[in-house]
Write a structure and sequence with these properties.
The protein contains ten helices and 17 strands. By secondary structure, it is α/β, with parallel strands linked by helices.
Length: about 350
Amino acid sequence: MERNDMTVFPVLPENYKLNIAIVTTYDVEVDVLKKMLAGQRDKDRFLIFYGGGDFLEGPAGQKREEVLQSQIIDITLPSGNPDYPLVINHGKVWLFEYISETGDYEYRLVIGSRNISSFENLEIGVMLRSVPCKEDDQRALWLMSYLEAITDCMNEKDTGQLKYETTDKVLELNKRLEKVSFAIDGKWESDDYRIVTLFPGAMLINRLNNSIFAMCRDYDELVICSPFIDYKLLQMSLLGKRENGRVVVISNKTVIDELKAVAGNSSCIVFLMPGNKKYVHAKFFLRRREDRFDLYLGSMNATGHGLNQNYEVMIHINDPAGVSSADEFIYDVIGETTC
């Protein structure tokens, strides 16, 4: 699977068949879902957790039930915080479980920015493959907790019996995942990675001390790519740069124009848009300090909602293979360079 092409499912392992597939998405377009599932013999094994964004029917008014029957599941997330009453599941996780004739299991996991929506967007993602779980390796626990949390938040009024059936499936799946770990497959490989799950209600200043924005301190280069970017977050990021450091901002024209109007002609900020005129939907943050790189990618926009109000899933990769400069990485993803 190409990391910018999330419309293609992982290659089926030899002598295996699909047992269950779980996809979490914010938006759903029926036509896109149909294309994605074209040729899939086991459509009934897909569980689509829909997080409350746009649900676009086909041009002929085709309903969701005509595409995947009742397997699209609405979820309503509790806030638990009166300051953030509206909470959405914004994570984009694609998990495929395969089973062989002898009862062995294989897994493929994709973390990225891709909803079940337009093929034309500029997206990013990374695929991981299952490996035997070593002692004290708990990197699958985040996945188990995330699946359990969103299953608990299924809208019972809309899903009825499906809620109980899905809960049983997820509990059984989680038991099997206890024996599994994951390794990054393809480019950006690294043994040093972790999954970052962000939940609502934590203030930005607290998250700066750990989690995703620890990278915003003491850097030579920081690349922020997001379709939505809050200027306050950009300001806070600028405070952490080293002498002669710079920030590269990648987004769409409207956002860049707004940021330029506020930021003025700052010599330490470079603004970029993809030359192919694709809509930037990718979300990634790349930090360079001397010759060390940290890459975060996934579902979180560079906004207050992303930091404080949504359920988000990111992957943090230390020193990803093949990344030797920020400009090369940017060119690899969007086809543009700051040079």
